[in-house]
Amino acid sequence: MTYANIxxxxxxxxxxxxxxxxxxxxxxxxxxxxxxTPPIRVNYSSASYYLLGHSAELMLKAYLYKHGxxxxxxxxxxxxxxxxxxxxxxxxxxxxxxxxxxxxxAENYRDKxxxxxxxxxxxxxxxELLTEEIKALQTVVFGKICGF
Length: 148
What we know:
- This protein is mainly alpha-helical.
- It contains six helices and no strands.
- The longest helix has 22 residues.
- The radius of gyration is 15 Å and the shape is globular.
């Protein structure tokens, strides 16, 4: 199953917190591999930021699904990292989990400027700090999914 049809499967039991978490982990791992690959002709930062944003989106959705948010509700939140972070915090995401870097990426991720070039000034969080923040979020979400 691809990410494109995750939200079309509501009701058939194929989508759950584990599936969202697993997909998030794949995007995070791809971003880490890309960051560790020296650029030969081009810089990979846009692709890395996109992969990390997608990982954060899916990780937050896995957390929310585990806390009773339905697939249609998650679909309605779309790719809005700020909304997902806010709702996750409202649903008990520990205050010790920093979302600062994710929130700094939110606007560029939501408006798809990582997928399509736009002529406007953009600011991005530090790539390494963003990666570490998502890894920390992953640890917390894994614990919640597994019941730790």
